[in-house]
Amino acid sequence: AQKVTQAQTEISVVEKEDVTLDCVYETRDTTYYLFWYKQPPSGELVFLIRRNSFDEQNEISGRYSWNFQKSTSSFNFTITASQVVDSAVYFCALSETSGYSTLTFGKGTMLLVSP
Amino acid sequence: DAGVIQSPRHEVTEMGQEVTLRCKPISGHDYLFWYRQTMMRGLELLIYFNNNVPIDDSGMPEDRFSAKMPNASFSTLKIQPSEPRDSAVYFCASSPPDRGDTEAFFGQGTRLTVV
Q: What is the pLDDT averaged over residues A76-81?
């Protein structure tokens, strides 16, 4: 069975600090997809990134970067120079590709960025 | 496309009443998912459909919950009778046929309060 663990329930930082959100996953599949979603205070779920298990290259998108390490089954998310607008709950999710599979979400990490 | 559309956005009802949540998936998507989000349990998959057929309803908490997808553009999640512990945010999401290579697109959710 697949499982996603986000050990950090809440992180508080001051604006401009860098922050890393951890995600550890478990799966028996060799092919799978990993995702990050953002849930701002308004409540909707916003897709941020998708990675497949064959692509371990780190990705950078503006102030966001993701570090995928299969050896440690981790897919960590770093926000550089955090801003107040980054305050949200961030979810890591996993989707296996064998058979019918759906997104399994972690419990989420609430990020509070104060001015 | 307008994205996944859910209605109502907010619902307050009395215990024992029937509640119906509605979802219109993105046109062309043939997977539809219903998720429930609570503080205690996070995001949980309730049921999902493929081509209007329920594939996995193992996440439906009990017989009071039922879901239907009469056509490709509409789905309902019904709770009868509702209980206070059903209070949660219910998300509908849809994915295109090649969903293993893409993310699920989420609606804005329905916040249900049962008093």
A: 97
